[in-house]
Amino acid sequence: MEKRDQIYVITGGPGFGKSAVISHLKKLGYKTGAEAAREIIHEQQQTGGSVLPAKDIRSFQQEVLKRRISFYQSVTGNETAFCDRAIPDQIAFARFNGFRIPDSLSQAVRDFWYNKKVFITPPWKKIYRTDQVRTESYEKACEIHQHIVNVYTELGYILIEIPMYKVQERVKFILNLI
Q: How buried is 68 (Cβ within 10 angstroms: 0-12 exposed, 13-18 middle, 19+ buried)?
């Protein structure tokens, strides 16, 4: 088991403001990890690739896991980093979709531990939008959110709900707690 207390997870259902928070943290000079699943879907749509949840879920899950582990391992020393979702999120999405949890994912969740404080964006209908990658309805996003809450809680992480403020205020809230 590897534990990196300097890596903080920002998670929550799709479309609830995680990426905006991560983007602002990056502008402030923090090391950040993008949402791997979203990146892969966008790349595959642009290139006509097949590593997509609807076409090849196993390859998609493996690629997401590979990128999340790569980011985790890229954080060194006392460097504070933030990631837009983390390895446990994959279990939540697998449960939501009714998929079997691959052994490699179960092992990765045991092997790679983040800071115990996990920041979670609550469902926020006012800012929720769908796009080419985020196709879930608001109601489905809320269901995914609950799976995420359950997984992190089961793993023993402490969930800290980020208030529904403007992005800069959300970031200040997070920085004051780390």
A: buried
- The pTM of this model reads 0.91
pLDDT tens for residues 7-40? 999 999 988 999 999 999 999 999 999 888 778 8
Q: Give one DSSP letter per residue of the chain, joined into a string.
A: -EE-TTEEEEEESTTSSHHHHHHHHHHTT-EEE--HHHHHHHHHHHHT-S-STTT-HHHHHHHHHHHHHHHHHH--TT--EEEES-HHHHHHHHHHHT----HHHHHHHHHEE--SEEEEEPP-GGG----SS----HHHHHHHHHHHHHHHHHTT-EEEEPPS--HHHHHHHHHHH-
Q: What CATH number did the domain enclosing 67 receive?
A: 3.40.50.300
Name the residue range of residue 53's domain.
2-177
Nearest alpha-carbon partner for 175 in 71, 24, 34, 20 = 24
